Amino acid sequence: MKLTIITPDKLAYEGDVTAVTVPGSAGSFQILKDHAAIVSTLDDGKVIIKDISGDHVIIIKGGVVEVKDNNIIVLAEGIVQE
């Protein structure tokens, strides 16, 4: 799967991942390969990224996530910590 995290200022992350956990407005949820297409609003919180080199955490300030055809795009209002 390909993950892209974008803020109004910069491209915060781009790469291949095996799983992503995002802070959905109705609660955190995990995205795995072949996840159903979805668009969801995001709260402030941790985006947990799993890739071949391990786990990474990016703390965002809200936003939106779109998942379609194993492409994940997170449009974050801002990044608190990478």
TrEMBL record:
Which topology term describes how it sits in the membrane?
Peripheral membrane protein
Keyword tags: ATP synthesis, CF(1), Ion transport, Membrane, Transport
Q: Where in the cell is it found?
A: Endomembrane system
Q: Where is the ATP synthase F1 complex delta/epsilon subunit N-terminal domain?
A: 1-77
Against InterPro entries, the record matches this protein to:
ATP_synth_F1_dsu/esu, ATP_synth_F1_dsu/esu_N, ATPsynth_dsu/esu_N
Q: Does the keyword Ion transport apply?
A: yes
Superkingdom, according to UniProt?
A: Bacteria
Primary place of residence? membrane
Q: Name one Pfam family in it.
A: ATP-synt_DE_N
Q: What does this protein do?
A: Produces ATP from ADP in the presence of a proton gradient across the membrane.
What interactions and quaternary structure are annotated?
Answer: F-type ATPases have 2 components, CF(1) - the catalytic core - and CF(0) - the membrane proton channel. CF(1) has five subunits: alpha(3), beta(3), gamma(1), delta(1), epsilon(1). CF(0) has three main subunits: a, b and c.
Tell me its family: Belongs to the ATPase epsilon chain family.
Please give the name of this protein. ATP synthase F1 subunit epsilon
- What organism is recorded for this protein? Sphingobacterium tabacisoli
